[in-house]
Amino acid sequence: MTYLFRTFKRFSIAIIGISALANQNFSYCQTAGETVKDADGNSYHTVKIGDQLWLKENLKTQHFRNGDKILSMPISTDWSNSTKAAVSEKPKKGPYNSNYGRLYNWYTISDARGLCPAGYHVPQRKDFEKLLDELGRNKSKWSDKSIFSQGEAENLGGKLKAKSKMWLAPNSGSNNQSGFNALPAGYRARSIVDMGLSAWFWTSTEYDALNADGLVLSNESSGSKLTYHFKTNGFSVRCLKD
User: Fold this and answer.
1) Tens digit of pLDDT for each residue in 185-234?
2) How many Å apart are CA 46 and CA 188, to the nearest integer?
3) Among 93, 126, 196, 229, which residue's Cβ finds the most Cβ atoms within 10 Å?
4) Can you give the pLDDT at residue 143?
């Protein structure tokens, strides 16, 4: 079922007024002064979007909150068949950037030892839905069952994506008006792919025995996708304040 991994299509949609929108001051974005440390001592900035306080960077920790080490799986191992909580090792080749953070399978998300820093948690699907609502999601045109990018007219993905050369062209709609600063770390199935092309974020919401929900952004779309993916995939994690 490869459509679960790459489901974005190219759309020839003209987003009118993006340059004008970029000059507006949006009340939903307010950078917070709080900094947070994970179990490894890595520091993160925070951003307030609406009434949600998000970490502004992808998680990097290699330990659970209680200090237990997360199983680290080399690129050479068959990641896709493991149901143990695991974090991917960094690739030795390719356009990897340390700002991408780490990629985790969903079994680390559901682990009771906790992945996010104290006082923070991995967002549920409804938390990402609230974020998209804050950015102007048109619910009347949104399908919870869609496996394709949605919200292009509202530039939902563009408002979340960092204005960075780490995103390869065309990086449609990118203006980072939310301050979320999403970076294209790609994802891991058997190996790590799509670096520079897409960002994949886990939710803690289980879809069924094999799948869980996640948010996906693409360089080819100004929208976003919120749908289910194999739990064995390695995705980025953004933490949300309790």
Assistant:
1) 999 998 888 999 999 999 999 999 999 999 999 999 999 999 999 999 99
2) 26
3) 229
4) 87
- List the 198-206 sheet strands across, edge first: 198-206, 211-218, 225-230
Reported for 11-19, long-range contacts at CB under 8 A and 24+ positions apart, including other chains, are: 11/149, 11/152, 11/221, 13/152, 13/153, 13/222, 15/152, 15/153, 15/155, 15/158, 15/172, 15/173, 15/222, 18/155, 18/158, 18/173, 18/175
**Separation CA 60–CA 230 (nearest Å):** 21
- Residue 28: per-residue pLDDT: 55
- The CA distance from 38 to 55, in Å, is 11
